[in-house]
Specification:
- The protein has 283 residues and is an alpha/beta fold.
- 41% of the residues lie in helices and 20% in strands.
- It has 2 domains: 3-67; 78-280, Rossmann fold.
- The protein contains 11 helices and 11 strands.
- The chain is elongated and about 70 Å long.
Length: 283
C-alpha cells in the first residue's frame, strides 16, 4: 500500500468529522510525526510503499482520530509560545487564547518578580514566563499529580526551574503556605457543566474534566478564591491576570472589584471578552 493512497484515505475519513482544512492539518501532523513524511515527499515519490511499522502506526492513529481523540494526545506534543511541550490526557491542550494571557503578563513582569500560576496543567504558562524572565521566581500549583508530572517534564526539557506544588486551590486552609507574589496568573476551570454537551467531542470526550468544568450554580468559584487569595497574597503594585469564559467576564471583574481591586476586561484574538486583569486600588 502506498503512502499516497493512505494519505488520501486519511483525508477522506477525517472529513467525515472535521472540516477539509482541519482534516488536512491533522493528516499532515500525523504523517510527519510517524514517518517524517511531507506532502512534497509524496509528490516526489508517489509510489513509495508504507513499511509495516508506519502502516500500523497510521492505522491505529486513524482509529483514535475517528473517536475524536485530539491529534496532540496521539503525538504526545503540542506547541505553545514557540515551545514544543509534552501533553497527555491528564492536561488540557494549550490554546492560542492562553498565549494572549502570557503576552499580557510579559508586559507587566520584571526581573526578580515572584509569580504563581494557579491550575498549571502542562505548565505552559509558568514555563513561558520563566523563559521570558529567567530570574523570576515561579510557583505553579495543580490538584492533579498526573498533570504536575507532565509539567515537570516540560520544565526540565525547557531548562526552567519552577516550584511545582500539588494542592487543591479551593481548600482555603492550604493557601497560607503559598507566600506572596507580584503576579497571580491563572487559566482555571470555568465551563459550567450544563455546557458539556455543547462542546466538541474531542474536548468533551478526551480532555480532563477537572480542568474544564465547574458546577452550574457557582461557575466563578475559582475566581472568587483567586480574588480572596490575592487580597492577602498579592504584593503592592502586583497584578492578577486570568482567562475566563466570555459570558462570565463581567461577573469575574465584579468579583475582583468586590474584593478591593480595579478590574479591566480584555478581548482575545476572536474579539471575545476572555481576559480579566485586576490590580489593587492605589492608596
Amino acid at each position: 500500500m502506498t503512502i499516497t493512497s493512505i494519505y488520501r484515505n486519511y483525508l477522506q475519513e477525517l472529513q467525515k468529522i472535521y472540516s477539509p482544512g482541519e482534516a488536512e492539518t491533522i493528516t499532515k501532523i500525523i504523517f510527519e510525526y510517524f514517518g517524517n513524511i511531507s506532502r512534497s515527499d509524496m509528490i516526489k515519490d508517489p509510489a513509495r510503499q508504507a513499511g509495516k511499522l508506519i502502516l500500523h502506526d497510521l492505522t491505529e492513529s486513524l482509529k483514535d482520530l475517528l473517536q475524536y481523540k485530539p491529534v496532540q494526545y496521539i503525538t504526545g506534543e503540542a506547541f505553545f509560545c514557540g515551545m514544543k511541550l509534552k501533553v497527555s490526557e491528564a492536561v488540557l491542550v494549550p490554546r492560542p487564547e492562553t498565549e494572549e494571557l502570557v503576552m499580557f503578563a510579559k508586559e507587566f513582569i520584571q526581573d526578580g518578580n515572584s509569580i504563581i500560576d494557579i491550575g498549571t496543567g502542562s505548565g505552559c504558562i509558568a514555563i513561558a514566563l520563566k523563559k521570558y524572565k529567567e530570574n523570576t521566581l515561579i510557583s505553579a500549583i495543580d490538584i492533579s499529580h498526573e498533570a504536575l508530572h507532565i509539567a515537570e517534564i516540560n520544565a526540565n526539557q525547557q531548562n526552567c526551574e519552577i516550584d511545582f506544588i500539588q494542592m487543591d486551590f479551593l481548600d482555603e486552609s492550604k493557601l497560607a503556605s503559598l507566600g506572596n507574589f507580584d503576579l497571580i496568573v491563572s487559566n482555571p476551570p470555568y465551563i459550567p457543566e450544563k455546557e458539556k454537551l455543547m462542546l466538541d467531542r474531542n474536548v468533551r470526550d478526551h480532555e480532563p474534566h477537572t480542568a474544564l468544568f465547574v458546577r452550574d450554580e457557582d461557575a466563578i468559584v475559582f475566581y472568587r478564591m483567586i480574588a480572596l487569595f490575592g487580597k492577602h497574597h498579592l504584593n503592592e503594585n502586583g497584578k492578577i491576570m486570568v482567562e475566563t469564559h466570555e459570558i462570565y467576564a463581567g461577573k469575574v471583574a465584579d468579583e475582583f472589584i468586590k474584593h478591593g481591586f480595579r478590574a479591566e476586561i480584555r478581548k482575545d484574538i476572536f474579539d471575545k471578552e476572555r481576559m480579566v486583569i485586576a490590580q489593587r486600588y492605589s492608596l
